[in-house]
Amino acid sequence: QVQLVESGGGLVQAGGSLRLSCAASGRTFSRNAMGWFRQAPGKEREFVAAISWSSGSEYYADSVKGRFTISRDNAKNTLSLQMNSLEPEDTAVYYCATARGTIATIWANRYDYWGQGTQVTVSS
Length: 124
Known about the structure:
Elements: E1 3-7, E2 10-13, E3 18-25, E4 34-39, E5 46-51, E6 58-60, E7 68-73, E8 78-83, E9 92-99, E10 111-114, E11 118-123
Parallel strand pairs: 2-11
Antiparallel strand pairs: 1-3, 3-8, 4-5, 4-9, 5-6, 7-8, 9-10, 9-11
């Protein structure tokens, strides 16, 4: 059974940092692109960051570019998101996901496995 489990969320003040982790089990995703999405209350799920299977390419939403960094460790089957200079607008549930292909993509419908999410709350 494939499972993605996020961790590392929490409450942080504006300007602070958090590091999210996603542990995959049930199969290896070393040949799949992976990504992070988020959903704030009352809003649709939105793309945050994505990384190709080889870590050769990364994509970021404009709202997080320069503040967030996505990375992966294929040997450990894990995905991470380093979030710096957090803003109240970053408050959301963050989800990791694995894509069907190797190429990083911003489109949620190209991801087939999703974690349960981890809450990130940034206070002003």
